[in-house]
Design brief:
The protein is of the alpha/beta class. The chain contains 7 helices and 17 strands. Strands 2-1-3-6-7 form a 5-stranded parallel β-sheet, sandwiched between helices. A 5-stranded antiparallel β-sheet has the order 12-11-10-14-13.
Amino acid sequence: MKNFEIVIIDDDQQSINKLSSMILSIEKECVIHRFKSLAAYRAAEIRPEALFLDIDLNEEHGFDLYAFDHVDFSVIVISGHTEYAVTGYEYNIFDFLVKPFSLARIKVVMEKLNLYRKTEIKKDKLLVSLTDSYRIVEISGIIKLEADVKYTKIVFDDGSVIMSSNNLGYFENLLNNRVFFRVHNSCIIHISKITKILKGLQLKVVLSDQSVEPVSKRQKAAFLSIFNKV
């Protein structure tokens, strides 16, 4: 497995040094890139696997990261202000670390990151975050993923359903390939689970569990183009 690419963005050098030291004491095979601002991070054009993000960055705000970056990596917010945790989870962050850092707490975060990282490398499996645990599932068994406010309902071939604490946008980024397609704002389907396409005023797909999902007008052309390549 390649070295773990980690970025730390914090305007406090002492905080950067302490966090870096703790991470390196736990994870030997990693490369840590350190920045004091979002601007410096952007200029470096680094794509990390995990990013530890302070929120109060002088004249910048940490959550501005989401305004300019396609965040397809794990974000761990680091802050002394616990109220940022609520906002952070609305952005679907991976975890929240309260300053001052605890080595025991960082160990927990690194263990979660490594479990996530190792699972994501397996193309046939997916690590799904539940409210109180993680579950490893077979991607081939997924029929569809449905938005449920800030959560995602995942429906499987065997009739089972699980509720992930990640939102649908997270899975859209993670499953960004021609096997899955977001047919409308609230649903991503597994293309191979389509048994029939219904014509009419609105295109609809019938899935292997007999459920029917509409294809939005905006997505119709893209959907037919992808489907024809399967």
